[in-house]
Specification:
391 residues, 17 helices, 7-stranded mixed β-sheet, single chain, L-fuculose-1-phosphate Aldolase, alpha+beta, 2 domains, 4-stranded mixed β-sheet
């Protein structure tokens, strides 16, 4: 992985926040670190005698975030929240908003409390492909410990307050200088330092180490796509009816997509869950698999299976649309659908990264995502449900 820091570029930035913006943008330039709103960063500083955490605001991408994209939150308020025995994520968001010193700034990241707990000025968090590929395998724990011997390694925990609370408990007696970072299984990686460049360097070096491990242990041979013809009019019509709006289709017949779609046991192979939890909101947990030409039958079965999945775990949640967000067509490739071209492209980007990770993780004993129940919790996160109930 290339280290994008340059002395010439960095010399233009002097303040803590300016450097935070700069290294956040550097992280965002690599889609193997973060995709479409993924990851978050922060910096601790002092304003008028008070300790303040500037943390990535909701709705911003690291690649183009500016100073106004960071939410300034009173550090002490966040640390007090970490000590609470329970706190719903909705209440956490409300408390974080109240603790901001600029009421016009965006809502703080749901990981703000976790950033506050880490006692270093600069904190970087990404969903690096290489890291989650290693952790999302049958031998994930063993290999992560092998690749990251000096990291604090945390089994999967739901993002938000629960994760922050867990790390707060674990680290109350830890010597933070004894670890190089944190690995969150099935989720991502944290690095930190009191120097912006050093924190960024640690991220790049750590992810590069993971990439080297994959290069040595997971060689993947991609098949050459024959670029077959496929009539999409009927598929678009049926999906549009199921979604309730006219969908835009993105067709992916790359060598990667063709290799993925050509697996002998495609249905079992391609329905093992998301690469990192936040993806589920974009892609759903699994795609529709079409191994024959009966599109209507395939979509109806997908919808029925989704209804069963919802019924198994739902309490008072509002069900999302039952139709798939992407389709894997046997011996052809992948089709993603969205309300517009941009949404279809975003889902396609996520699926591309997921496909390669699955192929690589299978070389490490088999790809393994979070459980069905944990997937539901993420897909029906109360913060997302609040938006639906409000509307």
């Amino acid at each position: 992985m290339n280290n994008l820091w340059t002395h010439e570029e960095s010399s233009h930035f002097k303040t803590d926040l300016e450097l935070r913006v700069y290294t956040s943008n550097l992280l965002g330039r690599s889609d193997s670190l973060v995709l479409h709103g993924g990851g978050n960063t922060s910096v601790k500083t002092v304003i008028e005698g008070e300790n303040i955490l500037f943390v990535k605001g909701s709705g911003w991408d690291l690649v183009n975030i500016k100073a106004e994209g960071f939410a300034p939150v009173k550090l002490e308020a966040l640390l007090e929240m970490a000590k609470l025995p329970t706190l719903s994520d909705s209440d956490m968001v409300s408390r974080q908003k109240t603790a901001m010193i600029n009421k016009f700034a965006p809502n703080p990241s749901v990981e703000a409390i976790l950033h506050a707990i880490i006692p270093f000025k600069f904190v970087d968090h990404t969903h690096a492909d290489a890291v989650v590929t290693i952790s999302n395998s049958q031998n994930g724990f063993k290999n992560i410990e092998k690749v990251f011997p000096n990291f604090l390694i945390i089994p999967y925990v739901m993002p938000g307050f629960i994760l922050a609370q867990e790390i707060y408990k674990i680290t109350r007696t830890i010597d933070w200088n004894s670890i190089n970072g944190i690995i969150l299984h099935n989720h991502g990686i944290f690095t930190f330092d009191d120097d912006a460049k050093k924190s960024y360097d640690k991220m790049i070096d750590s992810v590069s180490h993971a990439e080297e491990f994959l290069k040595e242990n997971t060689h993947v041979n991609l098949l050459v796509s024959p670029k077959k013809e496929f009539t999409f009019t009927k598929l678009q019509e049926i999906l549009s009816k199921g979604k309730g709006y006219e969908v835009f289709l993105k067709i992916n017949t790359s060598n990667l997509a063709f290799t993925y779609a050509s697996h002998e046991k495609l249905t079992a192979f391609a329905t093992r869950g998301v690469l990192t939890p936040e993806h589920i909101i974009r892609t759903k947990r699994i795609p529709l698999i079409l191994e024959n030409s009966n599109i209507e039958e395939g979509i109806e079965k997908y919808k029925e299976d989704y209804k069963s999945y919802f019924a198994k775990f739902a309490k008072d949640e509002i069900s999302l649309n039952h139709a798939p967000n992407y389709i894997v067509i046997k011996d052809f490739g992948v089709i993603t659908c969205g309300k517009n071209e941009k949404e279809a492209e975003i889902i396609n980007d996520i699926v591309n990264h997921t496909m390669m990770a699955v192929l690589q993780a299978d070389k490490l004993g088999g790809y393994k995502s979070i459980s069905l129940e944990e997937s539901f919790k993420m897909e029906y996160w109360e913060l997302e449900q609040a938006k639906l109930k409000k509307s």
